[in-house]
C-alpha cells in the first residue's frame, strides 16, 4: 500500500513508523502535490486545512487511486464543504488532541474566573490592585455544561471533576456518558444552558451545528455564566456574543476559535474586558506530545494495510438542518 504523507508536524517520525509496517511504502508530500498524489497513493495523510476544491476534484476523478484519508485534525468541516467521493473513507485524529485541548479549556476558564487578564494589565502597569479580589470566583461547586461529549468533552469533564465541579453534557440522543453526571439530548439544549455556570462548546462544525449558540441561546444563560469555545468559531454567533457581553447578559467568554478566524485587527471582541482570545492553541503542544499523532497515523495505516477497518472513521455528509434539536444533531459522541 502506498501512502503520501503531508504533515507540518512529526513528519520524520511518521515516515519512520510507517516504514516499519509491512506492506507500506510512504513518502513525504508537499501541499502543492496533493492533487497529483491521488493518482499514485492508496491513502493520504493530511490536515483538514489542506483540503480544498482542487483536491476534492482530483479524488473524484476516474483515475484517482486514493481510497482512504487519514486526517491530522479532529475537525473535518472542509471535507463536508467541498465533498468527497463515496469510495473514499476518512479517519480523523480521534482522541490525539483531546488532552491538550482540555487543558486549554481550563487555561481559558481559570483566566476568566481568576481575572488573569486584569492582573496581567495591572502587572504591566506596575500596579498592586487588590480590589480585583472582589471579582474572582472559584470553580468548586460550579456546574459545567459541555456541548459535544466526544473525546474532548470527556477529557474536559474529567478535569472539571478534579476542580470539584458537577458536569452536564449535551449529545444528540441523551445517551449516558460515564464522565458526566447528567446528559441532555440536543432538544433540551436551552434547558441545559440555563442551569450552567460554565459552558464549553466542543462539538464539530457541521451544517447542523453552525450558529448553534446564538442570540436565543445566550439569552437563556445565567448572567454570570462563562462561555468557552474550543471547537470552531462558527458554532457561536460572534455578533450575538458581543451583544450579550455588552449588555451584561453573560459573564465572560474564552475563545480559542473565532468567526472570522483569524479575528481581524479592530474587531470589537478584542477590546471586551471580559473576553480572553487565544490564536487556536488547543492543539499546540511540545514535540514530545506530537509522537501521539505519529503513532495514531501509523497504527491506523497498519490496520488499513491489513484490510481492517481504520479507527475513528467519520461520516462526511451534505445537507443543512434547522431548529434547536437539529442544530445539535451531529454532536460528537452522540
Could you name the key traits of this structure?
single chain, 334 residues, Rossmann fold, 2 domains, NAD(P)-bd_dom_sf, D-isomer_2_OHA_DH_cat_dom, NAD binding
The global form is elongated
Q: Compute the number of helices.
A: 12
Number of strands: 12
Could you say what the CATH architecture of the largest domain is? 3-Layer(aba) Sandwich
Strand order of the largest sheet: 8-7-6-9-10-11-12
Main sheet specs: 7 strands, parallel
CATH homologous superfamily label of the largest domain: NAD(P)-binding Rossmann-like Domain
What distance separates the N and C termini? 33 Å
Helical content class: 25-40%
One letter per element, helices H and strands E, the order comes to EHEHEHEHEHHEHEEHEHEHEEHH
Mean pLDDT: 93
**CATH C-level name of the largest domain:** Alpha Beta
Rounded to the nearest angstrom, the radius of gyration is: 21 Å
User: Strand share of the residues?
Assistant: 5-15%
Helix/sheet category: alpha/beta
The stretches of 5 or more residues where confidence is low (pLDDT under 50) are: 318-334
Q: Which topology of the largest domain does CATH recognise?
A: Rossmann fold
Amino acid at each position: 500500500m502506498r501512502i503520501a504523507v503531508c504533515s507540518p508536524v512529526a513528519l520524520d517520525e511518521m515516515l519512520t513508523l510507517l516504514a516499519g509496517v509491512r506492506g507500506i511504502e510512504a513518502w513525504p508530500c508537499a501541499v502543492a502535490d496533493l492533487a497529483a498524489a491521488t493518482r499514485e497513493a492508496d491513502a493520504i495523510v493530511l490536515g483538514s486545512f489542506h483540503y480544498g476544491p482542487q483536491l476534492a476534484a482530483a479524488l473524484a476523478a476516474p483515475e484517482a487511486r486514493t481510497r482512504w484519508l487519514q486526517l491530522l485534525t479532529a475537525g473535518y468541516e472542509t471535507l463536508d464543504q467541498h465533498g468527497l467521493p463515496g469510495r473514499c473513507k476518512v479517519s480523523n485524529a480521534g482522541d490525539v488532541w483531546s488532552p491538550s485541548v482540555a487543558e486549554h479549556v481550563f487555561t481559558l476558564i481559570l483566566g476568566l474566573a481568576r481575572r488573569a487578564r486584569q492582573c496581567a494589565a495591572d502587572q504591566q502597569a506596575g500596579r498592586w490592585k487588590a480590589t480585583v479580589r472582589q471579582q474572582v470566583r472559584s470553580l468548586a461547586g460550579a456546574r459545567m455544561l459541555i456541548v459535544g461529549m466526544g473525546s474532548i468533552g470527556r477529557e474536559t469533564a474529567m478535569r472539571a471533576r478534579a476542580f470539584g465541579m458537577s458536569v452536564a453534557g449535551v449529545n444528540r440522543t441523551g445517551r449516558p456518558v460515564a464522565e458526566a453526571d447528567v446528559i441532555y439530548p440536543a432538544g433540551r439544549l436551552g434547558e441545559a444552558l440555563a442551569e450552567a455556570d460554565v459552558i464549553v462548546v466542543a462539538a464539530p462544525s457541521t451544517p447542523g451545528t453552525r450558529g448553534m449558540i446564538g442570540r436565543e441561546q445566550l439569552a437563556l444563560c445565567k448572567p454570570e455564566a462563562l462561555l468557552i469555545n474550543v471547537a470552531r468559531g462558527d458554532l457561536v454567533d460572534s455578533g450575538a456574543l458581543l451583544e450579550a457581553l455588552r449588555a451584561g447578559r453573560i459573564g465572560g467568554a474564552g475563545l480559542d476559535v473565532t468567526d472570522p478566524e483569524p479575528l481581524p485587527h479592530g474587531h470589537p471582541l478584542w477590546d471586551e474586558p471580559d473576553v480572553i482570545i487565544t490564536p487556536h492553541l488547543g492543539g499546540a503542544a511540545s514535540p514530545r506530545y506530537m509522537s501521539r499523532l505519529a503513532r495514531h497515523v501509523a497504527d491506523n495505516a497498519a490496520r488499513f494495510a491489513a484490510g481492517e477497518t481504520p479507527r475513528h472513521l467519520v461520516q462526511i455528509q451534505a445537507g443543512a438542518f434547522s431548529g434547536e434539536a437539529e442544530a445539535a444533531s451531529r454532536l460528537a459522541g452522540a
